[in-house]
Amino acid sequence: MRLSGKIAIITGSATGLQGSVMGFGGxxxxxxxxxxxxxxxxxxxxxxxxxxxxxMKAAGFExxxxxxxxxxxxxxxxxxxDTISLYGAPDVLVNNAGxxxxxxxxxxxxxxxxxxxxxxxxSVFLGSKEVVPSMREKGGGSIVNISSIYGLVxxxxxxxxxxxxxxxxxxxxxxxxxxxKDNIRVNSVHPGYAVTPLxxxxxxxxxxxxxxIDRIPLGRIGSAFDIVPAVVFxxxxxxxxxxxxxxxxxxxxxxx
Length: 256
Ligand SMILES: NC(=O)c1ccc[n+]([C@@H]2O[C@H](COP(=O)([O-])OP(=O)(O)OC[C@H]3O[C@@H](n4cnc5c(N)ncnc54)[C@H](O)[C@@H]3O)[C@@H](O)[C@H]2O)c1
Prior knowledge:
With about 260 residues, the protein is α/β, with parallel strands linked by helices. It has helices spanning about 25-35, 45-60, 75-85, 110-140, 160-180, 200-205, 205-215, 225-235, and strands at about 5-10, 40-45, 65, 90-95, 140-145, 185-190, 195, 220-225, 245-250.
């Protein structure tokens, strides 16, 4: 019970349906519950969010679904206010929601640029702004930002995604330095290639799969269950002296 008594908001966590390929958010939500936390599952996917939480409640856990577009300031305000009324001030915020835009520089529209920066970077800003006051009042908290190895190194495509994940990485350090005095820790996780609802069909193509596996020193594509332990560690008090840090979970890709 490494998260016993903690209240956590996990964005983009409607991907927790039992029997389906889970996303990082959904798998993290289940693991947080098993470690003793109460979890607010948030997402723009109403159906999967409600169904995921129904499964969690049926398993005897305390979880609630809230509709939440992480690019909307008013949604953040509502989600944090409702979390406080329901369970109390959050101890943990996991900024996980995201999607991808597979375009090079010349194909990237301004719209795609703004969408990617909003979902991966503005969300971290808005979420931190909203949870910091109640975390400060409570005596501390942990914010975990799910960036990517694509926030550390370049690739031939996903231009705006790289920009958003790079921004998430450095925002993490900026917010960590600002709020260390309030015992609010902020860290980023940088997953490598992992099979989730986002990547499932793409990684299933054998050419794509072989190309990727060739680049992964540990010789396999990961899953949400490879990523989640790092999130649990950063959310828990075991990491109480770690802030502004980045944890790479990628089978060795960026070590080359
Ligand atoms: N899968 C990978 O290989 C990989 C690698 C590195 C980083 N990541 C990052 O990890 C995070 C989770 O990825 P995943 O693979 O589990 O993806 P996923 O698509 O399985 O889950 C992402 C969830 O975010 C939700 N979402 C999208 N836009 C949203 C918005 N505006 N507001 C709220 N929710 C929104 C989706 O509905 C979905 O449920 C993302 O930030 C992704 O960029 C994934």
